[in-house]
Every structure is written in structure tokens, then in C-alpha cells.
Specification:
Layout (H helix, E strand, L loop, with lengths): L10 E6 L2 H5 L2 H14 L6 E6 L11 E4 L3 E3 L4 H13 L8 E6 L2 E3 L19
Helix pairs in contact: 2-3
The chain binds FE2/S2 (inorganic) cluster.
Length: 127
């Protein structure tokens, strides 16, 4: 068990290790992301967590960058390395891989996305 001091951490990357993502290369993506972080000496700035299913299995493998609120799809090992180099280190989002951006309206799919919309969740009753 590990207890990291996360003071000063700039980004948290959630890497899906659910079964759909693992069948499509989630482990290779996980290792590529973590290796690139180490290679660029960014371990103190970027924290990663393996997760279970994030509910976007058609986009597998999935990785999510916070606090940006950027959801990435089809995260191969190469894409995982690019997320670290271009987005996390360089500040440039990989727009072709984006499922959702976070905005004032919540998560939104980019215009012209090829990702499926997915199943609509039921409306909550207002309290
Ligand atoms: S298993 Fe990764 S989104 Fe479902």
C-alpha cells in the first residue's frame, strides 16, 4: 500500500482498466502513459490511477485527464505517450481522440465526433 504526498500535483489521469479496455490494449496504454511520465520526469506533477469501467466501453481503451475534464478514446500505447507529451507536458489536447470536453454545460462531445452518443441517463427529479 502506498500513500503519496500529492501536494502540487497538476494532473490526475484516470486510466480505465475495465474488461473492455483491457481487451483492447488497456494494459499497454497504462504502461506507456506511466513510462512517458517517468521518461519526462513528471512523476511529481502527474498522478495516475487505474480504474474499473468508466462507462464508455465503445471508446475503449479510455483515459481521462483532470482537472481538465478531457476524456480520451482509443488510447493505444502511442496515443497514451502522446497524451503525456502533448497534453500534460505541452498543453495541447489531442483533438482527434477526444470523447468529451468539460465546459460550463458539463461534459460535451466535440462537433463532428465519430464517438457514439450512448444511452441517455434518466432525468433526475428536481429537489
Ligand atoms: S471498460 Fe473501459 S470504459 Fe468500460
Amino acid at each position: 500500500m502506498t500513500t503519496w504526498n500529492l501536494n502540487g500535483t497538476k494532473h490526475h489521469v484516470l486510466i480505465c482498466n475495465g474488461s473492455s479496455c483491457m481487451r483492447k490494449g488497456g494494459e499497454e496504454a497504462t504502461q506507456a502513459i506511466r513510462n512517458e511520465i517517468t521518461e519526462l520526469n513528471l512523476d511529481s506533477r502527474i498522478h495516475t490511477t487505474r480504474t474499473r469501467c468508466n462507462g464508455r466501453c465503445k471508446d475503449a481503451p479510455v483515459a481521462i485527464v483532470y482537472p481538465d475534464g478531457t476524456w480520451y478514446k482509443n488510447v493505444t500505447a502511442e496515443v497514451g505517450s502522446s497524451i503525456v507529451r502533448q497534453h500534460l507536458a505541452g498543453g495541447t489536447i489531442l483533438s482527434d481522440q477526444v470523447i468529451y470536453h468539460y465546459s460550463d454545460e458539463g461534459f460535451l462531445q466535440p462537433e463532428g465526433t465519430e464517438s457514439i452518443e450512448g444511452i441517455q441517463k434518466p432525468e433526475k427529479e428536481k429537489v
